[in-house]
Specification:
178 residues, Elongation Factor Tu (Ef-tu), domain 3, seven-stranded antiparallel sheet, 4 helices, 9 strands, elongated
Amino acid sequence: MVRIQIGDETIHIDATPSQGYRGEADVTTHPIEVGADVADHVRPRADELQLEAVVVDWPRGGGGFAGRARQVYERLDLARRTGELLHVTTTLREYPSVVIRSLSVPRDKDTAAALRFSLGLVEVVFAHSQTVEAPRTSSRKTQSKQNDGQKTASDATAGEASKGKSMAARAFDALFGR
């Protein structure tokens, strides 16, 4: 049995000729370093559920009321248009937070007193955030550097000129007075 909970309302589906479950993941196509955790390179996507369902104007157990199929359609369509969260229970598992991606209703002479529909559902995955205090930086790193103004090439000292030279080049300059 399939049940769809929308807020405080529960819709009991009378028949589900088919139920389709889909779970996918994005997997890197780049090489993974030997010894790395493979799970770090796999991102699961939201699960999807496809239902082929039937709701009739008389609920099981008798004593029904006319128009139930239309009411179910209108409620599902409203949930689709407004992005309401649904809780869906199927014969295989529960989906505590899904939204309707698609609602398709074929009509013909054989479905006059029933609602036969296809419902595409997608799981909504929530992330939890937390506000934390930023780590304090040392006062040495936050001190502003002194601005000594512009320097010309002739202002450069021997120490500044030797910056970027290898230790061997500086030893050669020291020995031969350059």
